[in-house]
Give the backbone structure.
Amino acid sequence: MKLYFIFLMLLIATEEIHSSRYRRNVDPLAYKNYLAKANAILERVPLIDGHNDLPWTLRNYAKNQVGMLNITDLTNVEPWASSSSSHTDIIRLRQGKVGAQFWAAYVGCTTQYKDAVTRTWEQIDVVHRFVDANPNTFEFVTSAQGIEDAFRRGKIASLIGVEGGHSIDSSLSVLRMMYDMGVRYMTLTHACPTPWADNSQLDNAGGVPVSNGLSAFGKIVVKEMNRLGMLLDLSHISRKTMKDALETSAAPVIFSHSSAYSVCNNTRNVPDDILRLVAQKKGVVMVNFYSDFVTCGISKATIEDVANHMDHIRNVAGADYIGIGADYNGVTRVPEGLEDVSKYPDLFALLLSRGWTETELEKVAGLNLLRVFKEAEAVRNQMAANGVKPFDDWIPQMDMPAESQPCNTGDYGNKTNPIVGNAALRIELSSISFFILILYYAIPWFSLSPK
């Protein structure tokens, strides 16, 4: 019994030492006061997280079979319990005071030009089903007002963001259908360019732009998103694409899960000049917790490092343009002190200790995102009042890369969209191949004929 007591005291002491790392120069009573204030803030306004990949882990670990899956507590359920990318369940969401969550409908870049649309619809479907399966916790919403109403009812407002423009297969019709399914933001690219937008990796040394930002069709995608009232998410895209989107969009934009480039020089983060443009456009940068985007792998990331990103964005753009987009369940390495979705109050307590005001943190928690969402809805309503019709352009075949052709029949019957570019080259090569095939069989026949 004595040994058990000693062991228990050692565990408590170890936890206290671990926790104290994030209370630098803050005495225990002051920290307790900051934490109480942080929890009070998150009870007054909804904490809106811009990006959580729980649907992706549902696909990987449960094959989207959520009918009998209990997600109340996954800390003792395999493979969730031993997974480094499992940070979310109902108990921890409640502990973290989460008021609203954008669930990511993500499929990999390997699906581009293949089954991206089908797989994305499956991810949209699984969000609807796990929300419906837990009605005491979640409420599916599609508007800023819906977030506020669900929060007042004590529910976690649940929304969908499609992570990657490859998911619409360069089709405005698919984009519109996804909006009808409840999608309220789309990330213009993921880790691959689309035929109409360049991704962030192309900003790395040796990267070669595909569209030099947004193509003409890419700008039409932005305008159609404005018309729908769908938020533009600029995470994952190149700097030139960021500038083109900010210039083209009539509505404020979001970065659903990105941090500050000046603090960590990863092209997934937002440079200072873009931060200033986001502020001019009244958008919001929702800070990412992925360790590689926080410290660039130079050191093990901590909650303090995430706060450093938020301090920097506040200094460059202002507290009115910051939000939270942790990227839980989508990454394997998260900062110490922010191990899962239960830790949001600790981050807010740390920011209070650094001099952030409660008013600023109410904005960071959710009021900034709500403002952006309402403005996007106002732009949609104004475009409707102005009689703007759905954009019905088709992407030019010349914009489609060669790798798209095996699974793309093209629009050969549309006289306004002639067969050009890669499609025309493919047909020309097919004609040459046919001619060679005829010669292959004809020449031996003539050589065998009687003289």
